[in-house]
């Protein structure tokens, strides 16, 4: 596997993501701009387990319109000559959903279309026996389509923290606190219902322009932790302009009891989602 890194796109605990092009194609092509770009996710040898796990999940999930496409993987060398493991993934020219939203409040018709795409991605993940465990706007990528009706396609990405459904293990928080469910925070439970909670938090953000817990920003993680662990559905606050369908959809995603939360296939049949106005 030989890739030429063009620029750094981002970095995290796992390693770094670069915009890259095939070295072989660059050697054969007169104009570098004609060579397709990919997102190259790289980790040092000692930190490669997360990428290996992510690669395995992508392999199991296979091809889906609403899941980021995995292209290939292999060992390479970083700029200092040290070994690194890399995943080549399709590049999202629209960036992340977080950047795409930019603090905006979406109208319900657009939020509904976006929600349907997220649900189709989650349904595919869950039907293939996995839980994402870290669903949030940073891990949803945006692909402009040029279509007037469906302006973008949203794809789920970053499966480094994913787990098998019903897999037992460490009772620690896997995902990002602001998008974690009460049972994940209080008891370390990460099953399908926890992904649905995270989806509800994203839909809340799209419809309100701010997150469910933004009012606690600056209060400290312990305050946020306790607020989520002790969450009661009656404390949900909606803007008055939300439709009854939107409110009902959010309540079914954000039920305190995970056994009462709707599953992806049920939410796809909810009036809020069905009236999104784009083809299935």
UniProtKB/TrEMBL annotation:
The keyword Signal does not apply. Residues 3-273 form the Protein kinase domain. One of its GO terms (molecular function) is ATP binding. Pfam families: Pkinase (PF00069). The keyword 4Fe-4S does not apply. Keywords: ATP-binding, Kinase, Nucleotide-binding, Serine/threonine-protein kinase, Transferase. InterPro entries: Kinase-like_dom_sf, Plant_MAPKKK, Prot_kinase_dom, Protein_kinase_ATP_BS, Ser/Thr_kinase_AS. It comes from the Eukaryota. Gene3D superfamilies: Transferase(Phosphotransferase) domain 1 (1.10.510.10). ATP binds at residue 41. GO terms for biological process: signal transduction. Belongs to the protein kinase superfamily. This is Mitogen-activated protein kinase kinase kinase yoda. It comes from Heracleum sosnowskyi.
């Amino acid at each position: 596997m030989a890739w030429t890194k063009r620029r750094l796109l981002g970095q995290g605990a796992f390693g770094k993501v670069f915009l890259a092009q095939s070295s072989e194609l660059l050697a054969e092509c007169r104009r570098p701009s004609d060579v397709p770009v990919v997102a190259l996710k790289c980790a040092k040898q000692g930190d490669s387990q997360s990428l290996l796990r992510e690669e395995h999940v992508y392999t199991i999930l296979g091809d889906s319109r609403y899941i980021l496409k995995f292209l290939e993987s292999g060992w390479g060398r970083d700029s200092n000559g040290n070994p690194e493991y890399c995943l080549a993934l399709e590049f999202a020219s629209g960036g992340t959903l977080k950047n795409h939203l930019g603090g905006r409040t979406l109208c319900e018709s657009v939020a509904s279309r976006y929600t349907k795409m997220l649900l189709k991605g989650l349904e595919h993940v869950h039907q293939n026996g996995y839980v994402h465990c870290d669903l949030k706007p940073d891990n949803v990528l945006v692909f402009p389509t040029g279509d007037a009706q469906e302006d973008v396609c949203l794809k789920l990405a970053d499966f480094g923290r994913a787990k098998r459904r019903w897999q037992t293990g460490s009772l620690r928080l896997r995902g990002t606190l602001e998008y974690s469910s009460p049972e994940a925070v209080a008891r370390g439970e990460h099953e399908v219902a926890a992904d649905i909670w995270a989806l509800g938090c994203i839909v809340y953000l799209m419809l309100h322009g701010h997150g469910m817990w933004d009012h606690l920003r600056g209060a400290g993680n312990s305050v946020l932790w306790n607020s989520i662990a002790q969450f009661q559905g009656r404390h949900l606050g909606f803007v008055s302009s939300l439709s009854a369908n939107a409110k009902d959809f959010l309540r079914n995603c954000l039920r305190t009891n995970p056994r009462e939360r709707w599953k992806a296939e049920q939410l796809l049949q909810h009036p809020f989602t069905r009236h999104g106005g784009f083809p299935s």
